[in-house]
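Budget justification note: compute hours in this period were largely spent on complex prediction jobs such as the one shown. Inputs:
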Amino acid sequence: GQQLNQSPQSMFIQEGEDVSMNCTSSSIFNTWLWYKQDPGEGPVLLIALYKAGELTSNGRLTAQFGITRKDSFLNISASIPSDVGIYFCAGRTQGAQKLVFGQGTRLTINP
Amino acid sequence: DGGITQSPKYLFRKEGQNVTLSCEQNLNHDAMYWYRQDPGQGLRLIYYSQIVNDFQKGDIAEGYSVSREKKESFPLTVTSAQKNPTAFYLCASSGWARSIVEAFFGQGTRLTVV
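Corresponding output:
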């Protein structure tokens, strides 16, 4: 089945640093979604992208829909302790009945 | 408030028993999904439903069953045939028929076999 390759798998950073993570696929996607999951909770939608090249921000978070439609990026600026968690990308190809999820990026922040 | 509710938050099951996890949504979404998450792992799709009285197997359906008798409800039964049921289970919904593809998740149910 379709797979999304999300990287890095984990990140250990200092508070205040910027963060970058990405997802790539061998298939063309027409929707990219980014979620954050806190420990013991369900994922929460952060940003949704619908057009190739689209750049969307949500506070300190910025995500981009890659021009090739096979990748997406999420950046977090000036990280704070509450940014800790697991970030998932998800995508949908044209006509697909379900989302495909990446394996997640676990973010740890040292104060 | 609109949302998706899973219950219970924690569930303990003895080996050989069936258990049913509840998922209810009042978002008027057509599609509903069940995912399984193991520690340190991503989300794996168990079953999904796009319309009442219809559902499809996901990637790991063996040992699970579902029903979709009402638009608002999509319960998941973990049967005794599921060999390793201890996991975190997540329910999600989306307005699929209206081409709204964002999936919204419940708070999850942590199932432990004792």
